[in-house]
């Protein structure tokens, strides 16, 4: 099997530009997803079940439908409503953030609920209100537990950003497909794309492990 | 537990072997060879999906050709880019999908003699001031990736120009135009004219530019060295001569085909 390195070199500038966009989409998705996910996670845990319902519905919808479908709906339905036209990158960031927020919310809920009841009881018996107890005692402890599953979600998000290629956002897979279309070859574009994603996800994994080690107090 | 697992394994083996036996005997009694034909059924009126069935001008032509040459057709709807990959590595025997015969494609594939004459045209909103291909400079144009539309535009504005948005399906490209993400779509004249006519509410118009977009001829596409090409070249000429082609053409396009022009392309 002959590998045509010349076409990989030819498309390298486009693939690298695509990698920058993938990083951009992923970072934006992670940041907005975390902010929104935090709010939704807290909303899910409201003791009044009626107030908590919209948050539960949000999580149910965005976890229960394919990200691919969400991207198509956001790009061809939602974004034109507000902007008057489609925009692949804006739609990509919105879809990735909304989707990721649902998973972050569940990770938050899992982290908080894994803290022993004794902590909340002790905090309340010391005179802290429920909100104060969450803010000063429970959430700080929960965050450390959330780092591994959050890291996992971020790695998944980097890979999920590849779906944005379908709305013609020029990220990694978009250019890999352009290479395939031009030269009718499959291994060169897709192995190169896979390698680029691997570089991104492995770097993130190392970074996360470093953060975990630094935060370990025991 | 072990006995249960063993008996399940034995059952699976028996079923697998009997299935193999079945397929062997059924192919032995077949008189017509079945050929696998790929098409990208998102290109009305040539090939498109209607309630789960693939229909269109190309489908009718394919069935007529198969009848003339004694083959049974197994038509499969597949993405445009995967279609080229499948024919190249012989997962499919051939493809019919409004594929223009080009020198570049002919390096990797074999083509039949032409069976349709087409030209690319520009689809724009009614109030657009685009009047020619040159006017597309600096504007966002949506195309289906890997088509001659992309080829001509890249020839005019540069390879991988960021204003040329490549979509996997022509239908998605048109959606982007309708939703305002692109200023124009370039695709085959029949396709864009049909779309504009059938969707008056979308308020689109078609711009012709024969200087920028040359005449193109569709061909059946085969892997290099395929033995089917000779059979289908003969079949195409047969349906030109016996009126079948004209009947199909009139059914879909309500006008007479220029068979002389198509035949003249057969060097």
UniProtKB/TrEMBL annotation, chain A:
GO terms of biological process kind: amino acid transport
GO cellular component: ATP-binding cassette (ABC) transporter complex
UniProt-recorded Gene Ontology molecular function terms: transmembrane transporter activity
A Pfam family hit: BPD_transp_1
Location, primary (coarse class): membrane
Keywords: Amino-acid transport, Cell membrane, Membrane, Transmembrane, Transmembrane helix, Transport
Key word Hydrolase present: no
Location(s) in or outside the cell: Cell membrane
Cell membrane as UniProt keyword: yes
Signal peptide start-end: none
InterPro entries: AA_ABC_transptr_permease_3TM, ArtM/GltK/GlnP/TcyL/YhdX-like, MetI-like, MetI-like_sf
Residue stretches spanning the membrane: 20-43, 55-83, 89-108, 154-177, 189-211
Membrane topology: Multi-pass membrane protein
Domain ABC transmembrane type-1: 19-208
Record family assignment: Belongs to the binding-protein-dependent transport system permease family. HisMQ subfamily.
PANTHER family named among the record's database cross-references: GLUTAMINE TRANSPORT SYSTEM PERMEASE PROTEIN GLNP, MEMBRANE COMPONENT OF AMINO ACID ABC TRANSPORTER
Protein name: Glutamine ABC transporter permease
Organism: Weizmannia acidilactici
Automatic annotation (TrEMBL), chain B:
Cell wall biogenesis/degradation found in the keyword field: no
CDD domains: PBP2_Arg_Lys_His
Key word Cell cycle present: no
GO molecular function per UniProt: ligand-gated monoatomic ion channel activity
Keyword terms: Lipoprotein, Palmitate, Signal
Leader sequence residues: 1-21
GO cellular component terms listed in the entry, alphabetical order: membrane
Domain Solute-binding protein family 3/N-terminal: 34-256
A Pfam family assignment: SBP_bac_3
Ranges of residues in domain Ionotropic glutamate receptor C-terminal: 34-255
Protein name: Basic amino acid ABC transporter substrate-binding protein
